[in-house]
Each structure stands twice: as C-alpha cells, then as structure tokens.
Amino acid sequence: MDNSTNPHGADVPHEAAQVANKPPNPEPGPEVHITVNNDQRLIHRGRRTVAEIKQAGGVPLADELDQLIDNKLTELPDDGSVVIKGGESFVSHVRSGGSS
Q1: pTM of the model
Q2: Rounded to an integer, what distance in angstroms lies between the CA atom of residue 77 and that of residue 32?
Q3: Which overall architecture, per CATH, does domain 29-93 show?
C-alpha cells in the first residue's frame, strides 16, 4: 500500500503536503531554472529584483509580474525582489486599470 496517497499515512510528512508545488531542495550551482510564462529560464540564484526576473523571462518592464506561491498568484511590486533558489514560477500580464 502506498502511504503517499493516504492523507493519514504515517510515512507522509506533513510538510510534504504544504510544499507540493515547491522543489524539495534548492538547485545546486550559481545558475538555476525558473519558469516565466510556462518557459524555463536560467537566472543567477539569490536575491533578484523584479526587473531582473522580467528581463530573464523576456517580459516587458511595463507588464505586471506575479509569482505562483502555494498554487496562488501573488502580485510582485515593481520595486520588489525575490530570493531565487530554483523552481520558482512566474506569470506576467498587461497591467489592468489605467489613468483617466
């Protein structure tokens, strides 16, 4: 019997269910893979600005960038940053709203 499919199985760590969409360990090496708009890209690990992530993913600076965290999109501020360990996923989109 495979305990990984049993939510009450003794062999299934509680943390595994909470981090299902995150890599189990950071990728080794200075360059790691991230996903931007369903395309894998290489980027230097560590703290990266949103502008650097947009550049690595070929995203226009005027677009918004969201990060997929725990199966939910989280909007990233243009002046923000993200600690890249490898395996992170991002989605860009044209800014909504506008000035009138």
Answers
A1: 0.69
A2: 22
A3: Roll (3.10)
